[in-house]
Amino acid sequence: MPTYFLGSVLDVGTLSTASDITTASGATAIGKDTPLGTLTGYGELCPNNAPGTWPAAVSESAVAPSGKGNILPGASLNNVAIIAGTWTPTVRLSVTGTGVASITADILVRVWKWNSSTLAYTKFGVATLTGQTIASASTTFTVTGVSLQEISLATNEFLYIDVLCNVTANPNGAGIGTKIRCNFSNSSTQGNATGQVVSPATAPFRSVPAKAALLATSMRTISSNKAALGKTRTIIAKAAMARTRQLAGKAALAKTRTVPAKAALIGSTSYFLGSVLDGSLLTTASDISTASGATSVGKDTPLGTSTGYGELVPNNALATWPAAVSESAVPASGKGNIYPSSLVNQAIIAGYWTPSVRLTVIGTGASSITADILVRAWKWNSSSGYTKQGVIILTAQTISTSATTFKLPATFLSELPFNANESLYVDVLVNVTSNPNGAGVGTKIRCNFSLSASQGNITGQVVTPGTSPFRGVPATTALKATNTRTISSPHAALARLRTIPAKAALSGFKHRLVPAVASVCHGPLASPYVQQRPDMNYMTASGMSTMYKGSPIKLYGATIYLSTQGGTAAWQTDLTLVLDDLFFRAWLNGLNMIRITDYWSGSQSPTIGYDDRQTWLNIDYCVTKAQQYGMFVMMDVSGMKALLTAQGKDPTNAANWTDFLSFVGLHYKNTATSICWYNLSGEPSLPTDQASVDALVNFYATLCNTVHTADNGTHLISSGGLTHMNNVVSGISYPTWWYPIFANIATNTICSIKDYSVNDLAYLSTIQSIFTANNINKPISCNEFGAQQEQGSPTFPVFTNTLAAPITQGGAVTSLTFTAPINQQILAGTILSLTGTENCTVATTTSSGTSLAVNSFTATFAHRSGDAVTALGFADVDHSLGDTVNNFYGAVFGTVTSLLKWNNGPRTLVATSVAGGDQIGISSYVVWNEGDQISSTGYDVSNRAQPSAWQVIKNKALGDGYRPAPFTIRQVSAAASVIPSVVASSSLATTGRSGSIASADGLPTLTTTGRTGQLVTQEAI
In 3D, which of 999, 991, 995 has the Cα closest to residue 1011? Predict the structure, then answer.
């Protein structure tokens, strides 16, 4: 992310009263004082020409921009936008004066856009850190990040930043001469980390006339009824266009449109420079990798007594320094670094490139040299050679005998698209301007490169803005019907339907790039998901274990299936309150993961897009909610099957998934640490022969590889939960039909299964044997399990009724008295639920009357007259429904090894020996489901209606699962309203003026404490 350093050197040429902002680090800081005296209130801390008296303003808005803050000079951000996201400032403050005492103040950093033509300031936001102690010892404060909208800077518009303090307590008297000191860089070209603002990435934009989109070989205008400003047009890539068509109508749109920066996906990619020679693409060059983790090695290039320009190569350096007179005099040698993976139909988007290199001078008694350091980016075409994209330069650096890592300044380069036979090539140069070493020293320059072809080291890397799929659109492309534009297939690398905002009119070039993410105008997927807390710990896999923060982690989760909250259609509404409740109850039940699924159905309106704004606002809210709880989200995207079905498309055709998976992967690329993995498309139809097995493997390989590429390998991937794994497919070359899905797809990093039957559980030991025999060393996830509730009753429910007499807690109960006659036959062994809290069974068959004999049991709860009694199903006299469900869950986990199933004919329980999940090394379990549906023949076990069934999940999860970070305690007044609290959805009642909610063993307890109390919140998690 770009960093803007606040300097103390007055600007020359842009805004002379302000001081310069720089984007390169390396300078020292200097303290600049602003008089405070005995005053409080708001005032500005200026790097130069501070006012003689503290303004003592009553509010932040009362402090107008003075023009004495900091400005980013020049045209570096002209026609560039800083995308929407979080801005995080850092300032270093102290108080000075004779015997000065500490003060208390709020620290504010404001972000503006200044127009040099109108001299107007436009404020975009304020980052605030409240209630800080500023002492006489300098302290660096990281101000709480603030989320700002996109800031687009046209010609004559500049980024302007100022720093304010709101002094709330100042004990210093008049004789002290109190001042507030703020650190700024003492250089106009380099900054210091004690005074900086880290912003989101940048992307270019441009304003173009509406008809400019059709300028090129064939001049045409758009009739006014063909395309209205602000609407969208659909690109149908499959539609062939044999020739140029003349559009009807002559009325051109006269207005201009702005291409938003978010129309190009931002997500940085690091390219690490290696020392291993490339094996096939360009064998004189060494490989670039995109994964870190390797050590580095120094590679030496002879310098001798020379100066001037030369190249530092990882292999086969020249024996004599070229001593070229300019950078352009050093051609691409082919000995630099090349990225061997295909970037065909990808583009490194326009934005800032930031290289880092580690250099040393060596030799017998060698002395330091002075040199400019250069990193060049090229596009290499295997047929036509090298095309230079740009040069990043760090001038006048001292390279000594101690290895030093140099970070070159972030430099803006235009978009770099790659077609067939084209690859990224990078080389490193230095321009030695001073070399005191004599002939006997044998001076060489050592540059570090990675020792691995597949992994890199951060001491030799180039951080780029990231890649996005592109397609070239010929300017002669016609508009079809009212609002569609057709693209001939040869010009569409991604032959899929895509929607772009109408205001993204692009430019009048013969060919133009349409980013794959330009699918939503201001939708949540138009830019990357914004991480809600500073955390770069992603879940990984090591052998059979899932790993988090370097240690094995076991996940216990539940599926969110909104059957009683509106079904799939609910996902297209605001689900904030529903999700708040579900996440809270999941946390209370000891769960550390939520699986979201089924946000579309096969009867869905075919016009809804997979990028539906409200759907993804809800999904993103789940990701954010998980971060707040310290939990994880399984990003299940299998609902796409239903949406494709609704659209009349084949969900088994991998090509129909490409756009959607690219879209999702790009959205969560390099962010969203709370996503444990993607779950793609489970429960495939059982293949029947070798050909259908191979087709299924190819389908899953395409899906896994697509999302892995778009996501840049940020998250783990599961092909989806498999069922009917014990079914035998004859005549195939694999041990089982499912074997190649788990064993042969490298990007399928999580092997997912489902357990719903005795047969499923009995087959677990076979799965373990096949994994062991064939060395499949990947984690296994049970990403759905459940037990059928009704257990075989043909007349479920048998009856519902209410109690006519109370039941005392702790008392022995041998019969139940009802308010009305039963008037139907009740079979012995029928399970009765008393007000959803506990179960008992019928002792004898009865057909009428108000009294019913039950097996004697001791009441755990007190039941009142009028409490509900409902028949749930069958079991024998020793097993209630809850016991049977719990037994199945225990068998899934492996806490029991004998699985009981009700046999309705002889009315007996049948025991089957099984090896449970823990015995075969399952790393995660996900119950179906956490919703509230409970039906006669379904698998949905409500955690409200059947707490006993959920207790076994909770006990297991709390026993060996990863426990999410506990809530923090914050003092609040009795009248305080805490809207984002995790307990906001729970019903609370106190008898005093206020109370406290504490967390003990994951269960909230409420006690009154007087006028003030404690409220458990999620805010600091």
Answer: 995
Which CATH number does the domain housing residue 323 bear?
2.60.120
Amino acid at residue number 130: T
Helices of type H across 535-672: 576-588, 613-629, 640-646, 658-667
Burial bucket for residue 391 (CB in 10 Å: 0-12, 13-18, 19+): middle
Question: Are 941 and 927 spatial neighbours (Cβ–Cβ below 8 Å)?
Answer: yes
- Total domains in the chain come to 5
Would you call 538 helix, strand, or coil by DSSP?
Answer: coil
The domain boundary residue, chosen from 450, 465, 480: 465
Long-range contacts of 470-474 (CB under 8 A, 24+ apart): 470/345, 470/346, 470/347, 470/417, 470/513, 470/514, 470/515, 470/516, 471/237, 471/345, 471/513, 471/514, 472/511, 472/512, 472/513, 473/235, 473/506, 473/511, 473/512, 473/513, 473/514, 474/216, 474/510, 474/511
Shared-domain flag, residues 241 and 283 = no
Q: Assign 589 a pLDDT band (cuts: 50, 70, 90).
A: confident
Q: pLDDT digits over 460-495, tens only?
A: 999 998 887 654 444 333 332 223 333 333 333 232
What domain range is 440 assigned to? 269-465
Contacts (Cβ under 8 Å, ≥6 apart) of 840: 813, 816, 831, 832, 834, 854, 855, 857, 880
In a domain, 618, yes or no: yes
Residues 159 and 295 in one domain: no
In a shared domain, residues 161 and 53: yes
Residues 6 or more apart whose Cβ sits within 8 Å of residue 691: none
Confirm if 850 and 817 have CB atoms less than 8 A apart: yes
Residues 478 and 454 grouped into a single domain: no
First and final C-alpha spacing in the chain? 24
Residues 442 and 481 in one domain: no
Tokens read off for 926: 């996900």
Residue 899 resides in a domain = no
Structure tokens belonging to residue 615: 């759907």
**Average pLDDT over the chain, rounded to whole?**
79
Evaluate whether residue 811 is within a structural domain. no
Q: How far is CA 435 from CA 320, 325, 373, 400, 442, in A?
A: 15, 15, 15, 11, 12
Tens digits of residue pLDDT in 318-333: 999 999 999 999 999 9
Q: Name which of 637, 924, 552, 586 is nearest 753 in CA terms.
A: 924
Q: Give per-residue pLDDT as tens, 718-751.
A: 999 999 999 999 999 999 999 999 999 999 999 9
Rounded percentage of the chain residues whose pLDDT exceeds 90? 54
Map residue 159 onto helix, strand or coil.
strand
**C-beta of residue 188 within 8 angstroms of C-beta of residue 124:** no
Asked which of 732, 764, 779 is the last residue of a domain, the reply is: 779
Token pair listed for 406? 């140099």
pLDDT of residue 309: 97
Clarify whether residues 457 and 492 are in a common domain.
Answer: no
Alpha carbon separation from 747 to 712, 744, 778, 923 (Å, rounded): 11, 9, 11, 18
Structure-token match 């501070």, residue found:
50
Specify whether 620 is located in the same domain as 746.
yes
User: 580 phi and psi, to 5 degrees?
Assistant: -55, -45
Nearest to 6 by CA among 199, 152, 266: 199
Q: Is residue 958 a part of any domain in this protein?
A: no
Cβ–Cβ contacts within 10 Å for residue 74, how many? 12
Pair (707, 756) in one structural domain: yes
Backbone angles phi and psi of 167, in degrees to 5? -80, 120
Work out the burial of residue 508: count CB atoms within 10 Å of its CB; fewer than 13 is exposed, 13-18 middle, 19 or more buried. Answer: middle
Q: What six digits make up the tokens of 76?
A: 């570096």
Identify the band that residue 908 occupies on the pLDDT scale cut at 50, 70 and 90. low
Specify the pLDDT at position 699.
96
The structure tokens listed for 887 are 């037994």
Integer-rounded Cα radius of gyration of the chain: 34
